[in-house]
Amino acid sequence: MKHDPFNESMEMYVKTLGELAVPGDDVAISALARRLGVSTVSATEMVHRLEDQGLVTHTPYRGVRLTDEGGDFATRVKRSHQMWERFLADHLGLPWEQVHDLACRLEHATEEVVTEALAAYLGHPETCPHGNPIPTADGQVSAHGWTPLDELAVGERATVRAVHPESTVLLEHLARYELKPGQQIRVVEIAPFNGPYLLAVGDDTHPVGREVASHIYVERET
Fold first, then answer.
1. Is residue 25 part of a domain?
2. pLDDT beyond 50 at 1
3. How far apart are the C-alpha atoms of 165 and 76, rounded to whole Å?
4. What pLDDT, on the 0 to 100 scale, is given for residue 3?
5. How many CB atoms lie within 10 A of CB 98?
6. For residues 177, 180, 182 and 188, what is the CA-based torsion angle, rounded to 10 degrees?
7. For residues 104 and 80, what is the distance between their CA atoms, to the nearest angstrom?
8. Is the pLDDT of residue 5 over 70?
9. Parent domain of 21
10. Which residues contact 78 (CB under 8 A, 6 or more apart)?
11. Rounded Cα distance, 213 and 197, in Å
């Protein structure tokens, strides 16, 4: 596929729909627009274009979902993106919180043969630097049983496993507190009225807002 600006934008929309999708549910166009930082009008226009190409179905007043073809396309873009993240972080030593945006730029200029060459060079990693499963070459994605941090109770201990969905703003925020995959945490306090979580992270404690906590996936200690 020729990577002109329209195709790059299309790929971003399709990949983002794949990130926001919940099995059996439509994604609201307003949610898609917020995630991409565009107006609802712009998002609606692109959804109509994607529908014309058979990549999505759109139900007025309900939302949009990927077709089988669109889902396959989203998975290929995601695999390319995550391989670049691993290469940038593991082999170029770029900061964990910066590789997401850099990979977003590279994924659009990467043919599938390059993605698979990267995968072989990297030793076929199973997760990206932010802990999310990388689809296999045939499109399979491993499931995990991790729990959103905002479902933990006071006193519970856990290990951070993934951040999803990712954004550079969120990753930079978490990097300041070292809230990365592998980090052990303990919930010290949960403020009432939707207040923040107070987390013990190593020898320090940090407040984490509920929206941020909902993007951090952890493995509970048993």
1. yes
2. no
3. 17
4. 42
5. 16
6. 40
7. 9
8. no
9. 5-66
10. 15, 18, 19, 134, 135
11. 8
Q: What is the pLDDT of residues 168-186, one digit of tens each?
A: 999 999 999 999 999 999 9
| Predicted model pTM | 0.87
How many CB atoms sit inside 10 A of residue 220's CB? 13
Quick check: 106 and 84 in contact, CB under 8 A? yes
Instruction: Report the domain count for the chain.
Output: 2
**What is the CATH classification number for the domain harbouring 10?**
1.10.10.10
Is pLDDT larger for residue 122 or for residue 24? 122
pLDDT (tens digit per residue) in 116-156: 999 999 999 999 999 999 999 998 888 778 999 999 999 99
> Is the bond leading into 165 cis (omega within 30 degrees of zero)?
yes
In this structure, what token pair is assigned to residue 114?
Answer: 């390059």
Note whether residue 125 is domain-resident: no
Q: Residue for token digits 């107006």? A: 39
Both tokens of 117, joined, read 């060459």
Distances (CA, A) of 105 to 8, 14, 37, 81, 129: 9, 15, 16, 9, 17
